[in-house]
Amino acid sequence: MTETAAQVAVHQDRPAAPLRTETFRRDRPDIVGPDVPEPPFPIKLAGVVQHGFGRGGKDLGCPTANLPDDSITPMSSVTRTGVYFGYAQISPEKDGKRILRDEDCTVMPMAMSLGWNPFYKNERLTAEIHLIHDFGSDFYGHQMNAIVLGYIRPELDYTTREALIDDIETDKRVAIKSLSRPAYQKYMHDTFFATEYSRL
Questions:
Q1: 74-116 pLDDT, tens per residue?
Q2: Pairing between β-strand 82-90 and β-strand 65-66 as defined by DSSP bridges
Q3: Of 9, 25, 64, 108, which residue is least crowded by CB atoms under 10 Å?
Q4: Considering the domain boundaries, does residue 24 fall inside one?
Q5: SS3 for 67-115, per residue?
Q6: For the domain that residue 93 is a member of, what is the CATH number?
Q7: Which residues participate in catalysis according to the annotation?
Q8: Residue 139 sits in which domain range?
């Protein structure tokens, strides 16, 4: 049986990851997972968005929200490293003040990386969520709730930044198409999310 991300983190430093190949890229499916989420999904995560490494938006053109290390245990204890898909929502308030626009607080599709990001050689296990939406401002310090619904692909290493960006764009397309199925769409209205924004 494959070790969970948490098990790997306990007894190893940064683990090796397979190198992404052109064959892998050509053979990637448009939709992943069964037509109905299967255990261990859905997995619910929540935490305050942290400052990460600052490279998602600047280096990759794909801003990510980093969850606190202790908030990813419900996922890392039952899944392996890799890229996942689901839904997430950011709260509009920070420090008691409403900051974000209504449209930035809807439940939206997301792609999530759980692992060590081999291309950047991270030293610890992290969870980075990319919400597939153009935000009007950053959301550091805001509460984020996420429901992870399926697995897209394993964590990979890359020889170039361009190859990594190419796979990230594919991950986003796969996430959106995989979430288009009715059994996944219903999670947009899960009570885990704030209902006043979930249907805007």
A1: 999 999 989 999 999 999 988 889 888 888 999 999 999 998 7
A2: unpaired
A3: 25
A4: no
A5: CCHHHHHHHHCCCCCEEEEEEEEECCEECCEECCCHHHCCCEEEEEEEE
A6: 2.40.30.30
A7: 128
A8: 43-198
